[in-house]
Amino acid sequence: MIEVFGSSSMMSNPYCHLANQRYDRTMDRSTQIKAMASAPRLKVLKLLAEPEKHFADQWSADPADFGVCMTLIAEALGVSQPTVSRHLDILRQAGFITVQRHLKWSYCRRDETAIAEYLDWLARELSANRAAG
């Protein structure tokens, strides 16, 4: 059984707060810029781009199909779980990752559509035509 964040049965999980808020595509871009302005958060996005390569030994769920356990992300970054939780929350607020729960673990996946939309927006903002206008 898969539960998406927001279920009251997940209150014992330290990452439950990550799903209490839904990503709103109309939010301002400053949250996305903040998310991208951090080396650890960029590393998370790079690792999640190839989960089967970086998290092949995850046994609880397929990392490519389901996402990567937050505990493994913390280990890959060499940081504590509270630290990775904060980084992941910022990425989730920016819409760059989704978080879901399976059994007693929380898993993260990249939102490729949101990342592509942000990169398209950034390219348009930085284009020479925009600067001339």
Instruction: Estimate the strand proportion.
Output: 5-15%
Helix share of residues?
40-55%
Runs in which pLDDT lies below 50 for 5 or more consecutive residues are 1-23
Strand order of the largest sheet: 1-3-4-2
Radius of gyration using CA atoms only: 16 Å
**What is the first-to-last residue Cα distance?**
53 Å
Number of strands: 4
Oligomer: single chain
SSE class: alpha+beta
Kindly state the mean pLDDT as a whole number?
Answer: 82
Number of helices: 7
Break the fold down into its secondary structure elements and pairings.
Blueprint: E1 2-4, H1 30-36, H2 39-49, H3 51-54, E2 68-69, H4 70-77, H5 81-94, E3 97-102, E4 105-110, H6 112-126, H7 128-132
Antiparallel strand pairs: 1-3, 2-4, 3-4
What this model shows, in words?
With 133 residues, the protein is α+β, with helices and mostly antiparallel strands. The chain is built from seven helices and four strands, in the order βαααβααββαα. It has helices spanning 30-36, 39-49, 51-54, 70-77, 81-94, 112-126, 128-132, and strands spanning 2-4, 68-69, 97-102, 105-110. A four-stranded antiparallel beta sheet has the order 1-3-4-2. α1 (30-36) crosses α5. The chain is elongated. It starts with a strand and ends with a helix. Residues 1-23 have low confidence and may be disordered.
